[in-house]
């Protein structure tokens, strides 16, 4: 066998810290597996061990420091090889784009701090699928190669198992798909595996990798494994076999530069049911991911503006919780029931940390805003037990916007009042709406819409008794019977079913948004599916639909009109509060589902009135178009279905129409022809891999869950729909703090950032990990190259930058103003600093 066709044997131990066991058992197994690997290194001088996941190393460091010291020596020796520079082996479809950045930031910096090395090879051998922006995320995380196993050859045909993988922005990583498994559980099959892989190497004309070692519950390479390998190496017909690592393999391949294909695609699909299992943990993940970014932004602004100490240690601990919950058997919803009790605790701790940081930051800033009114000599609550208002002077409500563009959005004031003005004293229209409390007659809140600057705030003045003359909106919204209407749309509900019977877009010549009923709750049979959805591509076996609807008008307008639709199926109840606001074609739906079905799935279906449909899905830090073939696929906050208006002969911009669906908790979708479906819930058995089902099994997602979705019709391409900003606005509502009268040196309205291009957004703003400046991460969101100007007044910084298609840029803003703004990677290092 020629040198270039040799077989690299990769000794590894795939470790699931959570799956059919809880994290405490995984913790113990990691220590035992690392001890076993160290024993093998002592026993076999040529043995090389490969292991990923910074979280595992931190556990060992904390609980077995003597063994950790041994590992450090073996890493320095080069025989213990660190791969996969992420905190854990996450699900590679469901975490947000910024979450992947944090896996690199915290994982790689941990490895550099403790071992003096960073992973050069991305390593997710057990994750169920891999989104199309992975190459850029890997490159920005300091990794230029990648190893994965799923989807296998039976799930996705690739021209070659070694290839260049390219993402939308043009980033490339050399990628290897494992031919079968990341390990072996029966030693008697190992020789056949090695022979088969050796033959593949010979046929390919270049080297190949073969992974060995007991996996899933740890274990790693065994004595028998290594004895067999040494025996095979002595045979003349088995030349070219060597104990190796992924680092060595990719280094040799790049030097050899074989003729391998370039693939620009996602690596899907495996275990399609995992995108909709265990609704609670998925909803918590979405919420806490956004909360963490808000906590960082607000804490950073409070530090810059007021000197509030930044809670770095606490927020890093919270991120570790979030990243651990990204593990593929957690995020994929395929672990045992007890494991999800721990998942709830991890998200709960992270959320509590984030909430405390947000509150401290907002109140530090709001307390420094000048809100004093003439005539106020001291604070008194003589007028009202809740508000500090005196003499009809109003009470200050400070409203914050954590997003990088000005947002006009609903603000719910938790008190019934007579008038509201903005900081300039301009009276605002308002509406009295039902509160969540029922405190004698005090059961009403006040609803307004307000504009708040980017990364900034505005003070609104709330008057308990003083009313103002307000020009009512010319586009008042109304609800009557089965109709919701404003100047943009008219939406008619079916009184018997509660489905959307007719939806007219007035802006586009009175065209129909849907063809047929919309928001149809379809119940599907999934008794043929295990928890993962192994072997399946779609869920289409319809059993029935929710019906027997009851409709009730909750809000009449003029700022918000809402109709509540309650429908039934079996023992389950679906309640949808469908709302419309003035001057908008977006329909907001607040859902409360009490689900009592087993081995069934619920989808909401929307047949969009278009031809030649194109389905585009948000993926982490990007988007992808997929065929409208009915397959179950993962998506993030939004999906868009656009196409030609019926009757047109071309697909020019003027004849293109579409519908975006945005939600705050769901990840599973399918599109067949012109029908878009969102998967709301599945109820398989916990951790069921086609096992023996008896009366003792427990089913997922039984009981009440709540979430929100938004339907946004548009003309023109999806890039012109504003869907990305709308999705972030849904997930990042305006924040508020009641204040009182006090002097301060901050104005009543403030902007924290300005970005000239509307398709570049700042996602993260935080202190640099090294403590000598600030980090601002931005992304181009619509696949269009652009030059933009950015400025941050609190840092006295302005600069220009050019973004490529779907490019992510991380800017380091030094504390010293004479030092220029520079681009860094996710690890907060310049490219020349990478090791």
TrEMBL record:
<dbReference type="InterPro" id="IPR037094">
    <property type="entry name" value="Glyco_hydro_38_cen_sf"/>
</dbReference>
<keyword id="KW-0326">Glycosidase</keyword>
<dbReference type="InterPro" id="IPR011330">
    <property type="entry name" value="Glyco_hydro/deAcase_b/a-brl"/>
</dbReference>
<dbReference type="InterPro" id="IPR011013">
    <property type="entry name" value="Gal_mutarotase_sf_dom"/>
</dbReference>
<dbReference type="GO" id="GO:0016787">
    <property type="term" value="F:hydrolase activity"/>
</dbReference>
<keyword id="KW-0479">Metal-binding</keyword>
<dbReference type="InterPro" id="IPR013780">
    <property type="entry name" value="Glyco_hydro_b"/>
</dbReference>
<dbReference type="Pfam" id="PF07748">
    <property type="entry name" value="Glyco_hydro_38C"/>
</dbReference>
<protein>
    <submittedName>
        <fullName>Glycoside hydrolase family 38 C-terminal domain-containing protein</fullName>
    </submittedName>
</protein>
<comment type="similarity">
    <text>Belongs to the glycosyl hydrolase 38 family.</text>
</comment>
<dbReference type="Pfam" id="PF01074">
    <property type="entry name" value="Glyco_hydro_38N"/>
</dbReference>
<dbReference type="InterPro" id="IPR011682">
    <property type="entry name" value="Glyco_hydro_38_C"/>
</dbReference>
<keyword id="KW-0378">Hydrolase</keyword>
<feature type="domain" description="Glycoside hydrolase family 38 central">
    <location>
        <begin position="270"/>
        <end position="347"/>
    </location>
</feature>
<dbReference type="InterPro" id="IPR028995">
    <property type="entry name" value="Glyco_hydro_57/38_cen_sf"/>
</dbReference>
<dbReference type="Pfam" id="PF09261">
    <property type="entry name" value="Alpha-mann_mid"/>
</dbReference>
<dbReference type="InterPro" id="IPR000602">
    <property type="entry name" value="Glyco_hydro_38_N"/>
</dbReference>
<dbReference type="InterPro" id="IPR015341">
    <property type="entry name" value="Glyco_hydro_38_cen"/>
</dbReference>
<dbReference type="InterPro" id="IPR027291">
    <property type="entry name" value="Glyco_hydro_38_N_sf"/>
</dbReference>
